[in-house]
C-alpha cells in the first residue's frame, strides 16, 4: 500500500516512525508527504525516506493508493473532496469535517462516483461497534459523551483551579466551538444518532492528567457505559496516544481477510 500524508504533526510523525521505520504496516509505506513548512518537510524526507511535495495537487499526482489527512478540520475541508475526486482513498483524522449532514451526503456521493473509500478511525474512543449493532434494527435511543481533560489540553488554558464545565450541548455545536478537541464526538455521531442528537459535555479538570472520555448509550440492546483514560501524546497534549494508534490500526485492518467487529 502506497500512502500519502497531509499534515506532519503529532499523528503524522507517529505514522512515519511506525510505518516507515518500525515496519508496523507490512507492505505499506508513506511515499509522499505534504507539510506546510519546508524545513519540516526536508527533515522528514531525510529521516523517513519519503518524498515531499510543495502542494496537495502534486502529492495527488504521485503514485499513492490512499491519502491520510492528519492536519486540521480546515485542511480537511480544503483537501478531502480533491483527494476523492483524484480517485484516491482517504483516511481522515480531523473527522469533525463530517459533522454537517449535507457535506457527509456529498462526500458519500463522490466516493461512489469515483469508486473510492473513506476511512474514519475510532480515534481516542471506543464503543462504536456497539452503536452500529444497535442501529442495525434502528434500536439506538440515546448517545452521550463526557470528555474530561486537563485545562492545558483545552482552549481554556492552564489557569483554572477547579473543575469547570466548558460546554454542554449537541455534537454539532461542540465541534464548532472546539474544533481541535472533540472530533471524537463526530465519529460517535456518525456511528450512532447523528451530530444533532448526540449529546456532549466537555469538562476542564485541573486534577486529571489524562484525556478521559465516558461514552454512554442506551437502546433496545440494553445500556453501554465505557470510559477510556487516555495518555496524551508527548508533543501535543490535546491529542491522545490512542488516536494515533487507531489510525495505524485502521490501516492494518484494511488489509486483513478476517474482519473483526
Ligand atoms: N479523531 C480523533 O479521535 C482525534 C482527532 N484529532 C485530530 O487529528 C488532527 C491531527 O492531530 P495532531 O497530529 O495531534 O495535530 P498537530 O497539531 O500535532 O499536527 C497537525 C499538523 O498539521 C499541519 N497543518 C495544519 N494545517 C495544514 C494545512 N492546511 N495543510 C497541511 N498541513 C497542515 C500543522 O502544520 P504547522 O506546524 O505548519 O501548523 C501540523 O504539523 C487534528 O485535526 C486533531 O484535532 C486529534 C485527536 C483525536
Ligand atoms: O485525543 C483526544 O482525546 C480527543 C481529541 O482531541 C479529539 O477528538 O479531537
Summarize the structure.
The chain has nine helices and 13 strands. The protein is α/β, with parallel strands linked by helices.
Structure description:
The chain has 261 residues and is α/β, with parallel strands linked by helices. The model has no long low-confidence stretch (mean pLDDT 96). The protein folds into 2 domains: 119 residues, NAD(P)-binding Rossmann-like Domain (Rossmann fold), CATH 3.40.50; 109 residues, Dihydrodipicolinate Reductase, domain 2. The strands form 3 sheets. A 6-stranded parallel β-sheet has the order 3-2-1-4-5-6, with helices on both faces. It has a 5-stranded mixed β-sheet with strand order 8-9-7-10-11. A hairpin with a 2-residue loop joins β12 and β13. Oxaloacetate ion binds next to α8 and β13. One of its GO terms (biological process) is NAD+ biosynthetic process. This is L-aspartate dehydrogenase. Keywords: NAD, NADP, Oxidoreductase, Pyridine nucleotide biosynthesis. It is an enzyme of class 1 (oxidoreductase).
CATH topology title of the largest domain: Rossmann fold
Low-confidence stretches: none
Find the structural class using helix and strand composition.
alpha/beta
By CATH's scheme, which homologous superfamily of the largest domain applies? NAD(P)-binding Rossmann-like Domain
**What is the level 1 CATH name of the largest domain?**
Alpha Beta
What's the architecture of the largest domain, going by CATH? 3-Layer(aba) Sandwich
Give the % helix.
Answer: 25-40%
Q: What's the overall average pLDDT, rounded?
A: 96
| Ligand kinds | NADPH dihydro-nicotinamide-adenine-dinucleotide phosphate, oxaloacetate ion
| Count of the domains | 2
Read across the widest sheet, the strand sequence of neighbours is 3-2-1-4-5-6
Radius of gyration: 18 Å
What overall form do the CA principal axes indicate?
A: globular
Amino acid at each position: 500500500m502506497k500512502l500519502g500524508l497531509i499534515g506532519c504533526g503529532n499523528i503524522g510523525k507517529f505514522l512515519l516512525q511506525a510505518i516507515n521505520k518500525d515496519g508496523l504496516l507490512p507492505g505499506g509505506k508513506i511515499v509522499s508527504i505534504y507539510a506546510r513548512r519546508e524545513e519540516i518537510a526536508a527533515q522528514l524526507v531525510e529521516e523517513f525516506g519519503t518524498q515531499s511535495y510543495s502542494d496537495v495537487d502534486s502529492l495527488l499526482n504521485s503514485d499513492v493508493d490512499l491519502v491520510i489527512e492528519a492536519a486540521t478540520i480546515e485542511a480537511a475541508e480544503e483537501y478531502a473532496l480533491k483527494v476523492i475526486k483524484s480517485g484516491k482513498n482517504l483516511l481522515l483524522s480531523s473527522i469533525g469535517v463530517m459533522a454537517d449532514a449535507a457535506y457527509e451526503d456529498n462526500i458519500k456521493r463522490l466516493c461512489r462516483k469515483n469508486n473510492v473509500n473513506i476511512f474514519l478511525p475510532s480515534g481516542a474512543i471506543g464503543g462504536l461497534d456497539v452503536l452500529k449493532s444497535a442501529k442495525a434494527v434502528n434500536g439506538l435511543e440515546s448517545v452521550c459523551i463526557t470528555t474530561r481533560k486537563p485545562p492545558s489540553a483545552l482552549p481554556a488554558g492552564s489557569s483554572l483551579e477547579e473543575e469547570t464545565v466548558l460546554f454542554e450541548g449537541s455534537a454539532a455545536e461542540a465541534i464548532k466551538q472546539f474544533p481541535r478537541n472533540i472530533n471524537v464526538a463526530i465519529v460517535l455521531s456518525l456511528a450512532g444518532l447523528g451530530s444533532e442528537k448526540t449529546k456532549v459535555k466537555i469538562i476542564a479538570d485541573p486534577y486529571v492528567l489524562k484525556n478521559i472520555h465516558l461514552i454512554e448509550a442506551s437502546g433496545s440492546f440494553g445500556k453501554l457505559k465505557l470510559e477510556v483514560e487516555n495518555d496524551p501524546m508527548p508533543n501535543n497534549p490535546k491529542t491522545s496516544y490512542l488516536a494515533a494508534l487507531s489510525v495505524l490500526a485502521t490501516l492494518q485492518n484494511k488489509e486483513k481477510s478476517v474482519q473483526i467487529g
